[in-house]
Amino acid sequence: MIKVVIVDDEYYSRKGLRCIIPWKNMNCSVCGEATNAYEAIELAKEINPDIIVTDINMPEIDGIEMAKRIKQFLPNVKFIVITGHDEFQYARGAVKINALDFILKPIQVPEFTEAIMNAVNIIKKEKESDKSTVEKHLLSIMRGQSPIEEVDNYLDNLKSVKVVLINNDSYEHFIDKNKEFLNIQFISIIKKWVLDNIEKYYVFVPHDNRIGLILYGDMDIDFKVLIKKIKKDIQGVITISITKVGPAIKLKELYRIAKGLYGRCFYEGYGNVLEETKPINVYSNYEKMNSIITAIIDEILNANTKTSDKNIDELFKIFSDYMIKKRVIIKLVFELILKIKERLKALDISINNLENIELENDYRQMIDLKNDLEKFIDLAIENVREYRGELEDSSIKRAIKFINDNYNKNISLTVVANSVYLNESYLSRELKQVLGIGFLEYIRKLRIERSIELLKKRYSLATIAKEVGYSDYRQFTYNFKKYTGDIPSNYKIK
């Protein structure tokens, strides 16, 4: 708001100006009244008004002399002088105070309002020009092009400041899509939002795709609202980095920190508010990461997707928590992929389809690298499962052949499983699925079918029992009847 002081020795004149003029509509606020020049001078020192509306004819010191004295310490204040007909020529001649306008009594509201609006417009232009010069010099200080000590000329060193950088992440996208006008809108939207939502600030534009703010103190501002507004208004993405508060003399360092915070986009993604919450750690011990990488390879060979995914999440959490350098992360991921390929090739597992997944040499966001690695690992696990499936099919066939060759011996499921290097429980399930019956039932089936052939050749029961793997003929007879529903001797007759 533009600050206004009214100076007049007549009470009703002062109150009339305060009440009948639409000050608020003109972005003005009457901050004080004075009945004489002395009061006005002291009031001006206290509140630093932008406009002083004064009558000329006052006791002791007139309005012209008062204006000259105030100009000595407030050179940019604007005066609007109120004068009667008898004083008009005298007032017009007092050009040394550079009054913007002279209003004849009785005051006409439209004329007076026009004079105020003219003063407001001039003040705004001057402030914008002055502020622009200050902001350019502050940027020069932050960049190290001007001595940091010069910050005393603009910022109160007794107060803390923080730096905010608003980055237009859609800048290149808008250019590629021939929508450069949206980059211009980006700047105007940001400045308008800042003007409406932040009371005291300096704004600077270090690059075409970035706007910076210097804020006094630790103001609580919800910048997420601004992120949503940019997305809604121009379908753009912005990332905002905010430093902690620090003394103004550290402005150059705060600017450096704000720029460094933007590097966290690689880890946390774009379109966020990145605040300086803790110092970045340097992680020099790679033992934990190497153990996780080894575990990932082992779980791939075990075709364990769930555990593999868990290990990948843990690995990338370390990358993010300790801010491992991007080039180091990419190097580690490339090495992991090469190790996976080597292990698969050593086991004669195909890697042809893995060559279709190409990793980039550079990534804007770590999540994209993680997604590509997960795609590669999912495909590698699929290859392992396919290989194991083929291997297990072959092993089941070899297990059945082993049973067929040795059914008349004292074999167990454990013996068969060991012969083909399969898990006993797994073998039991697969045999039942392939044969339709369990292991023991299949052994009995083979023995009884073979005994029927021997019965037809008139061999004795004792001989047959021993031939097909039973310890005596009574055990043989029991199993024969259980399987066929008849006794062996009846098959001899047949």
Summarize the structure.
The chain is 57% helix and 12% strand.
Describe the structure.
The protein has 494 residues and is of the alpha/beta class. The protein is built from 20 helices and 11 strands. It is found in: Cytoplasm. One of its GO terms (cellular component) is cytoplasm. This is Stage 0 sporulation protein A homolog.
Tally the helices: 20
CATH-level-2 architecture of the largest domain:
3-Layer(aba) Sandwich
Integer count of domains = 4
Q: What is the mean predicted local confidence, pLDDT? A: 88
DSSP strand tally: 11
Assembly status: single chain
Kindly report the CATH topology of the largest domain. Answer: Rossmann fold
Distance between the termini: 119 Å
Main β-sheet: number of strands, strand sense, barrel status? 6 strands, mixed
Share of residues in helices: 55-70%
Subcellular location: Cytoplasm
InterPro entries: CheY-like_superfamily, Homeodomain-like_sf, HptR, HTH_AraC, Sig_transdc_resp-reg_receiver
Keywords: Cytoplasm, DNA-binding, Phosphoprotein, Transcription, Transcription regulation, Two-component regulatory system
GO biological process, one term: phosphorelay signal transduction system
Entry keywords:
494 residues, alpha/beta, Rossmann fold, Alpha-Beta Plaits, 5-stranded parallel beta sheet, 11 strands, 57% helix, rod-shaped, two-component regulatory system, DNA-binding transcription factor activity, Stage 0 sporulation protein A homolog
Write the layout of secondary structure elements.
Elements: E1 2-7, H1 11-20, E2 28-34, H2 37-47, E3 51-55, H3 63-73, E4 78-83, H4 88-93, E5 101-104, H5 109-142, E6 160-168, H6 171-176, H7 180-197, E7 201-207, E8 210-216, H8 223-234, E9 238-242, E10 246-247, H9 251-261, H10 265-268, E11 273-275, H11 287-301, H12 305-321, H13 326-346, H14 366-406, H15 413-420, H16 424-435, H17 439-456, H18 461-468, H19 473-484, H20 488-493
Parallel strand pairs: 1-2, 1-3, 3-4, 4-5, 9-11
Antiparallel strand pairs: 6-8, 6-9, 6-10, 7-8
Helix pairs in contact: 2-3, 11-12, 11-13, 12-14, 13-14, 14-15, 17-18, 18-19
Keywords: Cytoplasm, DNA-binding, Phosphoprotein, Transcription, Transcription regulation, Two-component regulatory system
Pfam families: HTH_18, Response_reg
Protein name: Stage 0 sporulation protein A homolog
